[in-house]
Amino acid sequence: MLKIDNICKKFGSKIVLNQVSLSVKKGEIAVLLGSSGVGKSTLLRVLSDLDHADSGVIYYNNKKLDPATMHKQHLVGMVFQQFNLFEHLNVEKNITLALEKVVGKNAQEASAIAHQLLAQYGLADKAQARINQLSGGQKQRLAIARSLALKPEILCLDEPTSALDPLLTMHVGNTITQLAREGYIVLVATHDTALLDTLDCTIYLMEQGAIIQTTRNADFKAHPDQYPLIAKFVWGTIA
What we know:
6-stranded mixed β-sheet
């Protein structure tokens, strides 16, 4: 289990995260829902040790998550909003680079892992393609495959549908669901309420750096009147 306990973060005098706490079990999906600038992406960056919290603790399997251990074991994978793919490398090399340089796989081992992941994500025929030859949906799938290559146990996705049309949003939702079924702890930062249509998840609505309402997605759909803040964000009006 992942437990985030009272995380606080400031940039200068601006409070970006204000005592954020949540727990996510293996095989579960947590959706950090909210407008831009409410702290969703910062929380994922803190979890990934790309930013450092000013206070608070993160636990994994009842032990304090130590950054050195986290990086050594590659516990957390991050899929960025802009994908952050290596434009000068082909699709296969985007996956094999970290496997060779970080994990120490030889070229043959790294290639075998890359091809297995590319096949799994429908990109087998794109192994030698350049990044600028891929569609937005293909880039998204490659970014996920690249993160999974290092075998993380926690996967963070930052605005995974921001550049995608409704059909591709549904496909991304299905992919996230499958990741949870495979046992990953999945955290998704999004403002895209359409993504909720495809996910069995817990919603954490954020505003001004704090979680202001939370519930299971199924409970929200069944009784939206009990969650007026989420309803107002999703539909623009209180149910």
